[in-house]
Design goal:
This protein is of the alpha+beta class. The chain is built from 6 helices and 12 strands.
Length: 259
C-alpha cells in the first residue's frame, strides 16, 4: 500500500555563517516543532546548498564572478543567444548549470557563493552529526536549483547526498499490467530535492525541509552519493547545445576535407 508522505519546512533557523553547525541548528529548531517532534529514523533532511556553502565559507567578492565561473567550468555546453547572457556549462562537479552554479541571491553585500567543495562529503558530515546529536539514522540531500532541457522554469535537484538511495532501479520487474520494465530508473534523489522545494523556496528563508515516509530509501547501506547520478559522457546523447554541435560538426568536416 502507498505510504503517507510528510514534507515539512524547518522553521526558526538562523542566518548561517562560516563555522556554524547545520546539524545542531536543525536539532535546535526541531525541538519546538509540534508537527515533527524531533527526527525519526528514516527521515530525510533536504538542505539547500546555499547554507552549506555559507558555513563552509565559499564566499568570493562579486567582482570576481567572471574569473570564478571560468575556474569552475570544465566545458561550455551552450551559450545562450543575446548580449550578456549566461553560458550553460559543466562544472567541476559534473553538473550542467548556468554560470557553473555560482549564485548571488540570498547573499548579503557585494559577494557571491560557490557551490560546496564536495557536496557528498558535506551531506555525510551533516548526517553523521545528526546521528551523534539525536541517535537517529537519517538521510541528507544537498539541493540546488537548475533549469532543464526542453522545459521552462527551474526545479531543485540533488547535488550531494548521504545515506539516501539515489536511483530506484526497477528494470527487470513488471508493471501493473505485467509488462516488463526495461528502462525505468527513478531518480529518487532528485525527486526528494524537488518535493522539498515546494515547502522551502528562495524567498521564504526556509532552507531545510524534512521528508518523512520514505524510510525504504534511507540507510547507511546507501553510500553512492549524488555524484553517482551524473551521466557518463559516453552515455550522454545531448552533450552540446544545438549551435555548438553544428559548429563542431563543421569543424570536423573541414578537418576531414583538409586531410
Amino acid at each position: 500500500m502507498p505510504r503517507p508522505l510528510l514534507i515539512h519546512p524547518v522553521e526558526g533557523l538562523p542566518e548561517f555563517a562560516p563555522g556554524m553547525s547545520i546539524a545542531a541548528e536543525i536539532v535546535r529548531a526541531l525541538d519546538g516543532c509540534e508537527q515533527l517532534s524531533g527526527l525519526c529514523d528514516g527521515d530525510v533532511l533536504v538542505v539547500t546548498s546555499k547554507i552549506v556553502s555559507k558555513v563552509e565559507d565559499r564566499f568570493l567578492p562579486a567582482s570576481e564572478k567572471a574569473a570564478a565561473i571560468a575556474a569552475e567550468t570544465v566545458r561550455v555546453v551552450a551559450k545562450l543567444p543575446g548580449s550578456g547572457a549566461s553560458a550553460i556549462v559543466e562544472n567541476r562537479l559534473g553538473l550542467v548549470m548556468a554560470a557553473a552554479g555560482i549564485d548571488e541571491s540570498n547573499v548579503a553585500g557585494e559577494r557571491l557563493l560557490l557551490l560546496p567543495e564536495d557536496p557528498d562529503r558535506s551531506a555525510a558530515r551533516i548526517a553523521e552529526e545528526l546521528e551523534g546529536l539525536t541517535g537517529r539514522i537519517v538521510g541528507v540531500v544537498v539541493s540546488d536549483t537548475a533549469g532543464r532541457a526542453w522545459r521552462i522554469g527551474q526545479t531543485d535537484m540533488a547535488i550531494g547526498a548521504a545515506r539516501v538511495q539515489m536511483i530506484d532501479d526497477v528494470r527487470g520487474g513488471v508493471d501493473a499490467n505485467g509488462k516488463p520494465l526495461v528502462v525505468t530508473q527513478r531518480c529518487v534523489g532528485d525527486e526528494m530535492a524537488a518535493a522539498a522545494d515546494l515547502v522551502k523556496g528562495k524567498a521564504s528563508n526556509l532552507p531545510v525541509a524534512v521528508i518523512r515516509g520514505l524510510s525504504q530509501h534511507v540507510g547507511v547501506r546507501f553510500v553512492e552519493g549524488a555524484r553517482s547520478i551524473v551521466r557518463a559522457p559516453e552515455e550522454d546523447l545531448f552533450r552540446m547545445g544545438a549551435n555548438e554541435a553544428i559548429a563542431e560538426g563543421e569543424r570536423r568536416a573541414r578537418a576531414v576535407r583538409d586531410v
